[in-house]
Amino acid sequence: MTRRGPRSSSTPGGAPLPEAGLPTTWLDLAPQPAPLVWREVFGRAAPVELEIGCGNGRFLAREAPRRPEACFLGIEQSRKYSLMAARRLEKQGAANARAACAVAEEFLAERVARGSLAAVHIYFSDPWPKRRHARRRLFQWTLLNLLADAAGPGAALHVKTDVDWYFELIMSLFIEHPAFELLSFGEQLEFPEEDLEMTGFESKAHRLGGRVFFLEARRLRDARA
Ligand SMILES: C[S@@+](CC[C@H](N)C(=O)[O-])C[C@H]1O[C@@H](n2cnc3c(N)ncnc32)[C@H](O)[C@@H]1O
What Cα–Cα distance (Å) separates residue 36 from each residue in 111, 145, 209? Predict the structure, then answer.
């Protein structure tokens, strides 16, 4: 039987080398500890904001340079899109943002230290409208439990969707969950003029005349998840 070698090469000291051709802003989770050490990921101590389902990285590319005091990580279950996001960030020279390929539920459970996130962003998560696909929806009670564990006291949750019934479902989860307080919600009435100021799906919804709904919640300081 032929033995296969390691998937990635390593330095004499044992530290894995990045795969050739991968953007420096792409975070390979394989060699990283669980949970992640944010100071090591970003090379400094700073509030960390997570975007779940970052797609091609438009939000990160817009927000990270505007808020250099924070660090941003976008995760995407699609490797292709996580790489697109990382390339966008690299092109832009974003020093405080990274993209990684990960499934949100596993990532929150295994890779995020309890209470270590300053904010979470989830924009235009797939609604999976058919009843038989409902289990695939990101927004479930279990996700809120995971978010409640991962978010620090007072952390902000930012959500947008263009699907009215999914918005109601998301709202009801945040209203019912004891670890969160709903701060504001409603229909977004103004849109940026610059297309790149919007996420890919926000831009599409706006272009097609769709409605966009937003919600802001906060992780309560004293609540138990
Ligand atoms: C409709 S797209 C929205 C992309 C981007 N946020 C935007 O506004 O343009 C939803 C994205 O979430 C990703 N996604 C869905 N479920 C996920 C999960 N459980 N973990 C990580 N990413 C997920 C999908 O791969 C997809 O790229």
Answer: 5, 19, 41
Confidence (pTM):
0.91
What's the CA-to-centroid distance between 53 and ligand 1, angstroms? 3
Among 107, 140, 162, 201, residue to substitute to test ligand 1 (most atoms within 8 Å of Cβ): 201
- Give the CATH H-level superfamily of domain 38-219: Vaccinia Virus protein VP39 (3.40.50.150)
Nearest atom in ligand 1 to the alpha carbon of residue 122 is 6
Tell me how far apart the alpha carbons of residues 59 and 49 are, in angstroms, rounded to a whole number: 12
pLDDT in tens, 20-38: 689 999 999 999 999 999 9
Distance of CA 140 to the CA centre of its chain: 16
Per the structure block, which two tokens stand in for 149? 């564990």
Instruction: Give the domain ranges of the chain.
Output: 38-219
pLDDT computed for residue 18 by the predictor: 53
What's the average model confidence in pLDDT over 2-12? 37
Q: Which residues are catalytic?
A: 126
User: Tell me: the pLDDT tens digits for 154-172?
Assistant: 999 999 999 999 999 999 9
